[in-house]
Every structure is written in C-alpha cells, then in structure tokens.
Amino acid sequence: MKKLYPAILLIAFFTIRIEAQQRTYKDIELTLINDINLSDEGVYKAHSLTMNDRGDIAIFDYGETRLIHFNIESQIFNKIKKGIGRGPGEFKRVKNLKISRDKIYIADLDKSSIIVWRTNGEFDTEFKIKDKFVRPSRIAICEDNSSYILSLQYGPEGIFHNYNNEFKRSSSFKKIQEQDKRLPYYTDGNLACDEDGNLYHAARYLSSIKKYSRIGDVLFDVPVFNFEPNKKIIEKDGKWTSPAKGIRRASGNIYIFKNNVVVGFSNSTYIESKLIDLYNSQNGKYKYSIQVGEKFNEFAINEKYIVLLMESKTGDFHLKIYSFNSSLID
After folding, report:
1. Pairwise CA distance, residues 50 & 71, whole Å
2. Farthest CA pair distance, the chain
3. What angle do CA 58, 62, 68 make, to 5 degrees?
4. N or C: which end of the chain has fewer CB within 10 A?
5. 257 falls in which pLDDT band (50, 70, 90)?
6. 299: Cα separation from own chain's centroid
7. Cβ-defined contacts of 126-130 (< 8 Å, 24+)
8. 8 A C-beta contact, residue 176 and residue 154
9. HEC string for 219-243
10. How far, in Å, are 125, 182, 263, 296 from residue 25 at the CA level?
11. For residues 74 and 55, is the Cβ–Cβ distance under 8 A?
12. Distance of alpha carbon 238 from alpha carbon 36, whole angstroms
C-alpha cells in the first residue's frame, strides 16, 4: 500500500485539476430578432463592431472605407461617411471604433488621429495625436469621455496612453524590456474601461487579461480560461517577423458589464470566437461562459441585446441581433 500511495495522490491531483478547469455554462436564452445580411446593404468587409446602451451600432466597412451606423430600435441603416484621404473626417487606415452615447470614435493609424462622428451622421471633430511614438491601434472610451489608446508603435514610455476628453495625454505606462515582445503580436488586444477609469486589456495571442489603474498599476493579470498558451508567438527571418505558424487567438472583444469583464473566447487560428466568457471585474476570477450557438468574429453587449458580427460560409458578413434577459447576468 505504501508504494501505491504516491500514485493515488498523483491521480487525485490530476482529477482535481481537471475538475477545476471545467467550464461552467450559464443558461441564458438568446432570441434572434434580426439577421442583417450586410451584402444586401453593399457592405462586403466589416470589422470593429461597437454598440452603446441605446442600441446604436457602428461598424467600419473596410472594403469601401466608410463608416456604418445602425439603430436596433428604429432599424435605420445609415452609411455615414465614405472617403479616403487626410482631410477632416476622412479615413486612411482605420483600426478600431468605439461608440459613446452619441459619438463614434475612430482610431486611424495612418492619420495618427482620433476621428469623431456623431451617431446622427454629422462630423464632429478630429484629434491629431501629436505625441511621438503614439500610433493609435485600439481605443477605449470611458464614461467621462477620457480615453485609452494602445499604440501600435512602441515608445520609451510604454504602449498604453491615457487621454482627457480633449485628447491631451495624461499618462503612459506598460514599458517592455525585451525588444521582440514590443511587437504587436505580443501587445495587441482589445480595450475597455470601467466607471472608475480603470483599463482592461484582453491580449490577442497571449493568455492574459489585465486590469490597470489610470496610472498603470496592475490590479490583476489572469490567464484566459481554458486556453493553452501558444508555444511560439513569432517567426523570424532575418530582420522580418511574422506570426508563428498555427498561432491561435486567445481573446476577442472585451466589455465591462454589470461588474463583469465580458470577453470573447477564441482558441482558433481564425478571427472567430466560440464563447463569451465572464470574469469578476474586481479580481479577474473566471465565473462562467455563455454559449451563443455559432462562431462569430466580434460581439457587443448591452442591457437588452447581444449582437454578433459574423461571416457566413458564402463569405457574406451578417449582423445578428439577439435579445436576452440581462437580469440573469450576475
């Protein structure tokens, strides 16, 4: 029996570990209320889905280089702006969108600008990011209209930059010592912020969901639940780098909703996600997952709706809008 005792302990250890890693699924019914085939509206390539509490949806059509707005309640589909250029309100290389109550904020990498349009289709303003090394790739808009920008280019002060409502920089943080790990394959990922102005970052390829204070203190750093970390992130060929073969995405969109960090779980070599995971916004602990029944590229959530942006087998992009009982989210 003494010889068997370590083996029994080992089996018990792995049994407990497997049980601890099992997903918990929340039974939340999603009712499809609208399925918009975007090709019917002349939109064939879409990204950067974003939605506000009023049911205003914005996406960017990168096939035609234009901004699209749709309101769930009125069902009005509006092609707000089409235009390639460097003039006010025009676009060069849009990387990310975020919508507030009545404004759409557009991070344009090549213009190094945040372009602002109103949801009613009127051009508002454009903020030129004049800070050296800051090239806006991802953006989060906080409730007080302050913001965070994730820079595609690494600078000596870090990759995250906090701005006030006039896009004057307040702070920068997240310095990285290793040069290879300054590359976007390591740093990219979606952003969100909470009512206290804390920043949340869901890394694209790394198994990491982080929460930062406004001044850059790490409040938590948790692994992506049930994601086996990529063994290799980049391939190097001389001075050129590329994503490693077979690299999997860890996370997609990230939102703060009812004291939860809500994240799209991918674990795929493609852009698609499979599940919506919820973590505690205070300590980062995994809580449970929501199954949506189909793979999606991006999602958005508010008190009434979960919206999916997906690409069909025929290559058409769809906006699928589901109603749900948000009181079941705890």
Report:
1. 12
2. 80
3. 25
4. N
5. very high
6. 9
7. 126/88, 126/89, 127/166, 127/167, 129/167
8. yes
9. EEEECCCCCCCCCCCEEEECCEEEE
10. 43, 36, 14, 18
11. no
12. 46
Cα 287 from chain centre: 19
- What pLDDT is recorded for position 82? 82
Q: Count the neighbouring beta carbons within 10 Å of the beta carbon of residue 181.
A: 14
Mean pLDDT, rounded, of the chain: 92
Q: Yes or no: say if 251 and 265 are a contact pair by the CB < 8 Å rule.
A: yes
Token code pair at residue 266: 């991918």
Tell me the pTM: 0.92
Q: Nearest 5°: phi and psi at 109?
A: -65, -50
**Kind plus residue range of the DSSP H or E element containing 94:** strand 94-99
Secondary structure class of 205 (helix, strand, coil): coil
The percentage of residues in the chain with a pLDDT greater than 70, rounded to a whole number, is: 94
Write out pLDDT tens, residues 274-327.
899 999 999 999 999 999 989 999 999 999 999 999 999 899 999 999 999 999
Give the tokens for residue 185.
Answer: 């394959």
Question: What's the Cα-to-Cα distance from 104 to each of 107, 118, 174, rounded to whole Å?
Answer: 10, 6, 27
- Backbone phi, psi, residue 11, to 5°: -65, -45
